[in-house]
Amino acid sequence: MSSTPAIKVIENRAPTIRESILEVIQYRVLIISMVRRELKVRYAQTLLGFFWSFMRPLSYLTIYTIFFSVIIKMDTGGRPFSLLALSGIMAWNYFQDIFHTAGQSLILDADLIKKNNIPRLILPIYRSLVGLVELCIALGIYVVLQIILGWPFTLFVLFLPLAIFANLFVGIGVALWTSAYTIRVRDFYHLVSTILNFGMWLTPVFYGPELVPDFLEWVLYINPMALVIALYRWSLLAGPFPEWPYLIAAFFSIIIFITGLRAFVKTQPSVVDYL
After folding, report:
1. Rounded to an integer, what distance in angstroms lies between the CA atom of residue 97 and that of residue 274?
2. 156/59: higher pLDDT
3. How far apart, in whole angstroms, are the C-alpha atoms of residue 253 and residue 223?
4. Which among 159, 189, 169 has a CA at the least distance from the CA of 253?
5. C-beta neighbour count of 224 within 10 angstroms
6. How far is C-alpha 9 from the geometric centre of its chain's CA atoms?
7. What CA–CA distance (Å, rounded) separates 183 from 186?
8. Does residue 118 carry a pLDDT above 90?
9. How far is CA 167 from CA 77, 126, 188, 228, 268, in A?
10. CA–CA separation, 29 and 24 (whole Å)
11. pLDDT computed for residue 75 by the predictor
């Protein structure tokens, strides 16, 4: 008795958020494979390969150290400026990497979308995970620098995965929003990119939050990346745990992610029409 093959019905409708999440779990092996492929493509046809991943954080660190530590002599509260700056730089660089790649995922993977019926949500997710490699390289540089400077490690470092997850969570939230609306209006990506370039200076990337004037403290408490960087410094530098007003930033992070996911999922049926 022959068995009837299973038939998969493809409908042009927006999946629910629950269905989208279940599809991501189902396609987890494909996501890992796509991450590997993207890493090979990113460093293909380059003479120095992974060396560029080392150069990016080191170049930023060198510039900021010379300008803010040597010339301006910024007060760091007794913490080595290089460690303070690098902890913020690697968090912000990872956030920007997610935005620049996952934020354009539907456009960058247009050929893949046209030729294959795969869940669209796996596209920004796999591109977000690619940046973890450069983040790990930056963390390696940080550890070496901390050993050289003789700054002690503490048990707070065990909470570093929490900071990395928060970094990924905030980045994907912004990327989902950007990707959902950039597919319709290409200028939206450039608008958000401009806002983020300006927002970097309102985020304590290369300075401590204690340098922010009292009348501008509210900017930190609504800034999700300020919370992320505070978590990095708490785990790596044994700095103070983020104050309770940062809960506002945590709330905004959740709202951005949920609404971004909803916008991205609703866009799926019409994606091909805009490519």
Report:
1. 24
2. 156
3. 9
4. 169
5. 27
6. 35
7. 6
8. no
9. 24, 15, 22, 6, 25
10. 10
11. 67
Lowest mean pLDDT among 26-30, 82-86, 167-171, 238-242: 238-242
Structural contact between residues 57 and 90, judged by C-beta atoms closer than 8 angstroms: yes
pTM summary value: 0.88
Angle at 138 between CA 89 and CA 82, to 5 degrees: 50
The mean per-residue pLDDT over the stretch 247-267 comes to: 93
**Three-state secondary structure of the chain:** CCCCCCCCCCCCCCCCHHHHHHHHHHCHHHHHHHHHHHHHHHCCCCCCCCHHHHHHHHHHHHHHHHHHHHHCCCCCCCCCHHHHHHHHHHHHHHHHHHHHHHCCHHHHCHHHHHHCCCCCCHHHHHHHHHHHHHHHHHHHHHHHHHHHHCCCCCHHHHHHHHHHHHHHHHHHHHHHHHHHHHCCCCHHHHHHHHHHHHHHHHCCCCCCHHHCCHHHHHHHHCCHHHHHHHHHHHHHHCCCCCCHHHHHHHHHHHHHHHHHHHHHHHHHHHHHHHC
- Token representation of residue 90: 């690697």
Residue 100 class from Cβ within 10 Å (0-12 exposed, 13-18 middle, 19+ buried)? middle
Closest CA to 246 of 170, 158, 177: 170
How far, in Å, CA of 76 to CA of 176, rounded?
Answer: 35
Q: Tell the burial category of 90 from Cβ atoms under 10 Å away from its Cβ (0-12, 13-18, 19+).
A: buried
Percent residues over pLDDT 70 in the chain: 88
**Residue 183 near residue 271 (C-beta atoms within 8 A):** yes
pLDDT band at 108 (very low <50, low <70, confident <90, very high): confident
